[in-house]
Write a structure and sequence with these properties.
The chain is mainly beta and about 525 residues long. A hairpin with a 2-residue loop joins β35 and β36.
Length: about 525
């Protein structure tokens, strides 16, 4: 066995490590001694000599050596016949069969083990791979090579650079156990532990890994990158950054060629431009069609300072509208909560750029002490706060005074005006009707009712303070003692407070379940009066 020069302790330690690992991977057969073949001299001039008590042959000029299926070419060499080893110098070329070629400035070859150590300007070539390094140890029995102190590997499409790693010639697998860069036509991948196959172009990583280009950044601690198909699977603390979106999840899959991907379990998407967060357990996104879908405990959050809107639905869809605005659509069992406004409906659309929220199918909106209902609602947002509310068809507003008295406004359509997060004015258009209970300093004085084609109503601290009649008003004031319960409610009155979400946790409650629970607790859920 040859010994490295004393000044090369680092190289010696790598050599020992490499041989130790190779020995663990493929143990030598018990009968290996019976199969040992001597290194043959095919061509060279000879000069006998001694070094450290060992006889050797110095071979000069177009040296050709052979050992089993291995041919070795060089400018000069030392052959130690008694230990069956060779040191080759100058334009060293080694080939095994017609598939593996090894070039170097210097090469140490052991005939008893069929192992070599190539040094300086090393190039290993087989049909699928080119490996450049200055330090390569190879075992020709197992066809496994180990490089250290830096190496560059190239296949038909990609380039890999690493400090050290193993190359398995039979399977064309590369195992990198130190810092590695994988450069593909589309991405740069940086990892500390990566396995790569040069036939299928699949890179598997088992440590912190970054995959990025000019427009995307992906990170994960486990997964794979199929470089031929541009498919990436990430796991463990993984996330993606694309333009203004950041997506975090337990697992992320991306198909770059098809332009789509999905994130699964504990997904969190953030739009840093619109100040939007989306949480879910499953998200599908399509970059070509510019849309994404979030389901399974999906929550939409829009935040500003300390005020955040929390909205839950069975499914949340995000895409670009025809106007170019960003559109969020929530489907089925929609419930939302913000400290100044809460609501529920079956479906909802939110044009983020235009700041308009549209509520469909049995919408209910709560603002302070007021409950708003209609066939269809449109909420106008200004400076991240509700500014106006359109109630279209069968509009109805109720404000609770106490357990028996409710201020009520009904009409065909209404426009509610909000200031400082509170409803302060209501414009009623068509079939306007009101019932309200004016207070003195301590108690209800009586009941006022009025009808007109159009009304304007002013509200202060939850109480009607002024009504302006536009056309032909009809009004009636009933003293408190003469108020009859059946006359205290407008047609269509319903009080839905048990459906109101009072915290962000309650947005996950389902309307059907709340109604069922309320029905069990009370035979009469809400007073409904049909005059």
């Amino acid at each position: 066995m040859f010994v490295f020069p004393k000044s090369s302790k680092l190289l010696s330690s790598y050599w020992v490590l490499g041989l130790f690992i190779l020995t663990l991977i493929v143990p030598e057969p018990l009968n290996s001694q019976a199969k040992i073949k001597q290194i043959e001299i095919i061509q060279a001039d000879r000069l006998l000599g001694k070094r450290e008590g060992q006889e050797f042959e110095k071979l000069i000029g177009d040296v050709v050596l052979k050992h089993d299926s291995v041919f070795l070419y060089c400018d000069s060499a030392y052959r130690f016949k008694d230990i069956n080893e060779v040191i080759a110098y100058g334009h060293v070329k080694l080939n095994q069969g017609d598939t593996l070629f090894l070039y170097a400035d210097t090469l140490y070859y052991e005939g008893n083990t069929s192992k070599s150590r190539a040094r300086q300007n090393v190039l290993l070539i087989d049909p699928s791979t080119r490996l450049n390094t200055d330090f390569l140890d190879a075992d020709f029995n197992t066809n496994i090579s180990y490089f250290f102190n830096g190496g560059t590997i190239r296949d038909s499409a990609n380039t890999l650079i690493s400090q050290e790693g193993f190359y398995f010639g039979d399977t064309h697998d590369l195992n990198f156990i130190s810092a590695v860069d994988l450069q593909t036509p589309d991405y740069l991948c940086k990892s500390d532990t990566l396995f790569y196959n040069t036939d299928n172009g699949i890179a598997r990583f088992f440590g912190p890994t970054e995959i990025f280009n000019d427009t995307s950044y992906l990170y994960g601690k486990i997964g794979y990158y199929h470089t031929q198909l541009d498919v990436i699977q990430l796991g463990k603390d993984c996330y993606i950054e694309k333009e203004e979106w950041i997506i975090e999840a337990d697992s992320i899959f991306v198909n770059e060629q098809a332009g789509f991907g999905k994130a699964m379990q504990n997904v969190l998407m953030e739009d840093t431009l619109q100040q939007i967060l989306v949480a879910a357990h499953y998200v599908f996104f399509d970059e070509n069609k510019s849309y994404s879908l979030a389901t399974d405990s999906a929550v939409f959050m829009q935040y500003q300072d300390r005020d955040t809107l929390y909205l839950h639905a069975d499914s949340l869809l995000f895409r670009e509208a025809e106007s170019g605005s960003k559109l969020m659509q929530a489907y089925h069992n929609v419930r939302f909560f913000r400290y100044d406004m809460q609501g529920k409906c079956d479906s909802l659309a939110y044009l983020t750029n235009d700041s308009i929220i549209e509520m469909y199918r049995e919408p209910i909106l709560w603002n302070a002490e007021s409950q708003l209902t209609a066939e269809f609602m449109k909420i106008h947002i200004k400076n991240q706060k509700a500014n106006k509310i359109d109630l279209i068809e069968k509009a109805f507003i109720v404000t609770k005074q106490d357990s028996l008295h409710y201020d009520q406004i009904s009409g065909k359509n209404m426009l509610g005006h909000i200031k400082n997060n509170v409803l302060y004015r209501i414009d009623v258009d068509g079939n306007a009707q009101t019932i309200y209970f004016p207070y003195d300093e301590k108690d209800i004085m009586g009941m006022n009712s009025a009808e007109s084609s159009n009304l304007i109503i002013w509200i202060d601290q939850g109480q009607v303070i002024k009504i302006s009649f536009i056309n032909s008003p009809e009004g009636l004031m009933v003293p408190r003692k003469e108020i009859k319960v059946k006359d205290s409610f407008l047609k269509g009155f319903q009080w839905w407070d048990f459906l109101r979400p009072h915290s962000r946790k309650e947005i996950f409650l389902r309307t059907s379940e709340l109604i069922l629970n309320e029905t069990k607790e009370s035979e009469e859920v809400n007073p409904t009066i049909e005059p």
